[in-house]
Amino acid sequence: MPLTITWPEAVQLCKQYREYLSTLKIAPEKKYKAFLMTNKDIEELLNQRKDGKPLDGIRFYIGRELIDGEAIIRLIPVAVEKVEVDGKSKYNDWRVPKSEIPKRGKNEGKDGDDDGPIPIIGRPRPCPYECGDDDILNFP
Predict the structure, then answer these.
(1) Is the dihedral of CA 50, 56, 58, 61 positive or negative?
(2) Among 25, 87, 88, 97, which is 20 to 30 Å from 71 by CA?
(3) How far apart are CA 38 and CA 132, in angstroms?
(4) How far apart are CA 74 and CA 23, in angstroms?
């Protein structure tokens, strides 16, 4: 699979998803067609290590939320750390546990236990709440 996408492909994929959204029987404000992460949001994810060294990227997991019985995608961004394995670069989710869900709340992003900080999960802001001007990716 190519690592890049062309503009025609991007426009077509967004159009197809908007067409899917139009078939759903849920309130228009719950038909998320995009998600925004600001510079501040991104910096919070990348700069959560105690040693001050920024993490190396962000991976977006795709989740499914049921709203009134209809499936909507949700993005779950987590920071990643670059490691070298057998001379090749690999990006691992930073401090995401293998099996147990970390406790959230007042300790999120702070020292949570002897193992260090509980990782922050990004909070992308959905469009239609955080939309920009109409363009070829977001408007019919």
Answers:
(1) negative
(2) 97
(3) 12
(4) 18
pLDDT tens-digit series, residues 10-19? 999 999 999 9
Does residue 21 or residue 108 have the better pLDDT? 21
Query: From the CB of residue 119, how many other CB atoms can be counted at a distance below 10 Å?
Result: 20
Q: Is residue 114 scored above 60 in pLDDT?
A: no
C-beta of residue 117 within 8 angstroms of C-beta of residue 109: yes
**Phi and psi at residue 34, in whole multiples of 5°?**
-165, 165
Q: How many CB atoms lie within 10 A of CB 103?
A: 11
Strands (E), 1-140: 34-36, 57-67, 70-85, 88-93, 111-113, 116-117, 125-127
Question: Rounded to two decimals, what is the model's pTM?
Answer: 0.83
**Strands, DSSP E only, in 16-69?**
34-36, 57-67
What are the contacts of 9-13 at 24+ separation with CB within 8 A?
A: 10/137, 11/136, 11/137
Distance between CA atoms of residues 89 and 25, nearest Å: 44
The one-letter code for the residue type at 84 is E
